[in-house]
Amino acid sequence: STKQSVTVIGLGPMGQAMVGAFLDRGYDVTIWNRTASRADALVARGAVLAPNVKEALVSNELVILSFTDYDAMYATLEPASAALTGRTLVNLSSDTPEKARAAARWAAERGAVQLTGGVTVPPSGIGRAESSTFYSGPRQVFDQHRTALEVITGRTDHRGEDPGLAALLYQIGMVMFWTSMLSYWQAIALADANGLTAADVLPHAVETANSLPGFFSFYSERIDAGQHMGDVDRLAMGMASVEHVLHTNADAGVDTVLPAAVADLFRRGMDAGHAADSFSSLVKLMTKTEA
Ligand code: NDP
């Protein structure tokens, strides 16, 4: 038969959406989850709930993993690790690059191979043509399973052989996502303290966010060239500005942890002698790892 089949282990919102996407494409889908009840709706749609992890692993060569983190993966797979031989583990659980590399070695020691993936969309984006996932690990394994991977998100991109790379790219995206979203919560708190609703400030917030990619492009070229000249902005100007931000938030009585952390970084840049340089010089400060 030419019918495609896959195992999905980990049925949080992401795993459930992935199973749904495979079922929609006519795949035979075997599933397993620590909390079995999370499989109910998927079984009703035609997925097969394996009686245990071992059965879930032996059912298919291709095994999609969607756990909270890698510790959850070990807790689930370690007891059945003899069944890992010959499996391809597509690990879409998020964690650190080091954990992803260690897991790839762990899998290899058990005769399995891991492809690490970073999904860039929430559950609602799973199964959609325009959604994307980046992968790293053995290229040939990616090529071999590309058709199935394109069911999860229509766009797939293999970025390199290092199993930690996809995890790193994911974390690079997430450090931006979490801090950016928190900056938005901060903006809403400040607005609220001044009698404005989230809806009131939405257009202004969107306009501000849309201006950021232009700054990324402009500064990325200069940063890679090691240039931090203060011809268009000076750190001293930025320092004054972030203090206005801090004081505006303090005056409004809203939480100041976030603006104070920003002011702290600017202050450290000033103390390091960068007053006349661009605020991009903070990158140098943040890159330093020596104690
Ligand atoms: P959840 O944390 O909701 O669920 C993940 C699964 O992990 C559940 O099936 C859960 O089992 C299982 N699990 C957690 N701890 C253990 C454990 N100790 N032993 C066994 N199983 C365990 O995650 P999501 O589905 O939301 O996301 C999955 C991954 O995808 C995460 O790494 C997340 O960072 C990433 N991601 C999520 C996005 C999102 O918008 N949700 C977007 C992009 C990536 P149980 O049901 O029994 O609790």
Q: What do these coordinates show?
A:
- Pfam families: NAD_binding_2, RedAm-like_C.
- There is one protein chain.
- The protein is of the alpha/beta class and 291 residues long.
- The protein folds into two domains: 5-160, NAD(P)-binding Rossmann-like Domain (Rossmann fold); 169-287, N-(1-d-carboxylethyl)-l-norvaline Dehydrogenase, domain 2 (Orthogonal Bundle), CATH 1.10.1040.
- Helix content is 52%, strand content 13%.
- The protein is built from 13 helices and eight strands.
- The protein has helices spanning 13-24, 40-44, 53-59, 70-77, 97-109, 139-144, 146-152, 165-193, 198-210, 212-224, 235-252, 257-271, 282-287, and strands at residues 5-9, 28-32, 48-49, 62-65, 88-91, 113-119, 132-136, 155-160.
- The protein has an eight-stranded mixed sheet with strand order 3-2-1-4-5-6-7-8, with helices on both faces.
- Helix 11 (235-252) packs antiparallel against helix 12.
- It is elongated, with a radius of gyration of 23 Å.
- The N and C termini lie far apart (61 Å).
- The protein binds NADPH dihydro-nicotinamide-adenine-dinucleotide phosphate.
Major sheet = 8 strands, mixed
The amount of beta strand, in percent, is 5-15%
**Which residue ranges are poorly predicted, with pLDDT under 50 across at least 5 consecutive positions?**
none
> What level of helicity do the residues show?
40-55%
What's the CATH H-level superfamily name of the largest domain?
NAD(P)-binding Rossmann-like Domain
Give the number of helices.
13
Mean pLDDT over the residues = 96
| Main sheet strand line-up | 3-2-1-4-5-6-7-8
Number of strands: 8
| Element-by-element helix/strand order | EHEHEHEHEHEEHHEHHHHHH
3D shape: elongated
Bound molecules: NADPH dihydro-nicotinamide-adenine-dinucleotide phosphate
Quick one: CATH class of the largest domain?
Alpha Beta
Computed structural class: alpha/beta
Ends distance: 61 Å
Q: How many domains is the backbone divided into? A: 2
